[in-house]
Amino acid sequence: MSDTTRRNLLKGAGATLGAAAFAQAMAPLTKWTADLSFDEFLQKHYKEFTREEMAVVLRRLEEKTEREYGRKVSIQDLPPQEGVSFGYALNLSICIGCRKCAEACHQENNHDRRTGNSYIRILEMEQGSLDMERGTAFYDHDVPAPGKYYLPVQCHQCDNAPCVKVCPVQATWKEQDGVVVVDYNWCIGCRYCEAACPYHARRFNWTKPEVPADEINPDQGYLSNRIRPQGVVEKCTFCLHRTRAGRLPACLEACPTGARVFGNLLDPQSPIRWVLENKRVFVLKEELGTLPRFFYFFDK
Amino acid sequence: MSASRHLFAYLRFLGRILWMSTDGSWRFYTWMVVLTAIALVGANAWAQQLAQGMVLTGMSDHVSWGLYVANFTFGVGLAAGAVMMVIPAYLYHDKEMHDVTLVGELLAVAAIVLCLLFIMVDMGHPERAWHLIPGVGRFNWPVSMLTWDVVVLNGYLLLNLHVCGYLLYMRFLRRKPRKRWYLPFVFLSIFWAISIHSVTAFLYSGLGGRPFWNSALLAPRFIASAFITGPAFVIVLLQLIRRFTGLPIGEGPQRTLTSVMRVTVLLNLFMLGSELFTALYTGGAHAGPVRYLFFGAHGHHGLVPWIWTAVVFNVGSALLLHLPASRRHVWVLNLACVLAFVGVWIEKGMGLIIPGFVPSTLHEMVEYTPTLTEWKITAGIWAFGLMLLTVAVKVALPVLSGRYASPHAREAEAAPGSSSQESPGGERQPAA
Q1: Distance (Å) from the alpha carbon of B27 to chain A's nearest alpha carbon
Q2: Do B364 and A231 count as a contact with CB atoms less than 8 A apart?
Q3: Which residue range is the domain that position A104 belongs to?
C-alpha cells in the first residue's frame, strides 16, 4: 500500500469516527426536537396575527397544555379596553409582610411548583431607612416583626421600560393599557431584559415548569398566565386575563390588610386616583427615569 | 473571467486548501484530535442543556448571565485586538508587520466565531435566532444595543473573511491583488474593530439599573484591554508558527506588538484604578459591587480569589514588560503575555459580568458558581475556536508564502496537496 493511500484510508476512518462521535454527542437533542413542532417553530410575532390565526394558535396551545399537563384549560387573548390605563399603589403603613400576595401570584400565574416562583418579592426593611441594602427577602419569623416594615416589589410596568428597549427581537412591549407583556413564543431567551430591569421583576424559565394537573389555574391568557415554555422570560402582567375582564389582580384580592389599591388611572372616580391625589406617593429608583406605574405611600 | 466562474474557481480553491489542511505531522494530528475530543464534550453538554434547560447552569434570576457572556465579552476583545497588527501595517507602512497581518485577521475570524457560539449557547431558544433577521423577524434596531452588536460582529466577520479570502486567492493565482478590492475594506475594518468592542461595552454601560456597569469608562477600558490580549496572543502565536513551519518571520512584528502592550497594560491598570477610586471613595450604591468583587460583602466572597489573581497577573505582566529582561529573554516576554492574557480574561470576564448582578437590583446577595456543564461548554467552544484558527493559519501560510499556488499559475508543480512530513502546518501548542 502506498503512503498516500494509507494516509487517505486513515483520514476516512478518522472522519467516520468523528462523525459518529458527533452524532452521539448531540443525541440528547432528539428529545428536544420531539417537543418542538413545525407550527411552533414558524409561529409569527403576536402583533402580526389576524384574529383567525390567533384562534388557531390558542387552540394549539390548549391542546398542548392538555397533552403535557393533563388539564383542560382555556387560553384567551383579551385586548386592552378603550379608555383604560392601569395603575397600582401599595400602602407601606399597613403591609405586614405576610407574603399572601406572593402566594396568590404563585397559584394564579401557574408558576413552577419546585422553585415556588412568584412575581412578587417582599423585602423586610428597617424602620428609619429606605436603603434596600439593609433589607432582606429571606426573613423567616412571625410578621410583622418589631422595628421592621415590608416592601413588596413586583413589575412596575414602567412607561420608559429599560426591558422593552433592550429586547433585540421586540418580544416584549408595552400595551395600550400600560401593561408590559412578553410573547413567550417569540422570546429567544437571551435574558438581556432581565439584566436591564432595575426592579428584579423578570424571571427566566430555567427548565420546564412543573404544575400538578389539579393545581393548574385553567383561566389563562396568551400574554399572561398560560404555562410558560422552557427557556423564555416571564413577568407580572397585572393579571391582565383578570383585570381586562373587569376583575382585580390576584395579589390584591389575597391581601388581608387592604394595602393594595388598583385601578384605572384615567377614571377620576377610581381609588387609585384618590390615592395619587391625596397621599404623599413615591416610586422606587425615580432617578433612573423609568416612570413606574407602581406607587408606594405611607399612611402616617 | 465572468463573476460566476470566479465564484466557482474561488470555491474550488477553498475546497482545495481545506483538503490540504488534513495533511500534517503526528503532532498536528494529536493536537487536532485532542481539540476535537474537547469540542465534542462541549457539544454533548450543550445538547443536554438545550434538552433539560439552563437549570443545568449555575445561573439564576439573580445572576442571569455567567461564564458564557463573560467569555463572549473577552472574545470580542480578542477579535478587536487583532487589529493592532493591521494598524501598523496599513497606517504606518510597517513592512514586516504587513507580511504577517493576515495572521491577525484570521485570529479575528476565529475569535468572532467563538463569540457567536458563546451567544448561541447562552440563548434559551437558539432555534428562534431567525427572529433576529431584519425583514423576516422583528429586529429591534436601532433601539436595542444587542441588535447593534449583531450587526457589528457579523459585519466584522464578513470584512475579515473578505480581506483574507481575497488576498489569499490572488496569491494562489499569483496575481497582484487590486487595491480597490481590499484596501477600503481593510481601513473599514480598523474602525469596525473599535466599534465591535465599544458596542459590546455599551450593552452593559447603557443599563442604569446596574451601577457597576453604568460607567462611561467601560468602552475605553474594553478597548485598552483588547489591545493587551490581541497582541499578547499574536506574539506567542507568531513564535509557534515560526517554530512549527520554519517560516521566516522577522523580529519586527514582535517588537511592535510588545511596544503596544507596554502602553496598554498601564492604561488598563490606570483606568481600573480610576474606577475603583470613584466607586470606593464615593461609597453608596456604586461601591457595593466593587466591595463584593475585591473584598467580599455580607459573608460572600466568591469572586475575591479570582479578582486578586487577575490583579497580580496584570500588575505582574506590566512589571515584566517594562523590565529590560523582556527585551533580552523571550521567555520573560512570553510569561508576561500569558499573565496578561489570563489576567484580562478574569478581569473582563467573570470580574466584569458577575459583580453587575451581585448585589442584585434589590440589593440581595446571591452568588454564582459555574457548573460542570458550563465549564464543559466553555472549554468546547475554546477548543473549536483553536481548531478553526489552526486550520486557517495552516492553510493560509503556504499560500501566502507562495509555496502553494494554482496549478494554472506558472511553475506551480510543487502543490503539496498530497505531500507528507514536510507539509507546512500551523499546529500549535495551547498558547494560554
Answers
A1: 15
A2: no
A3: 86-297
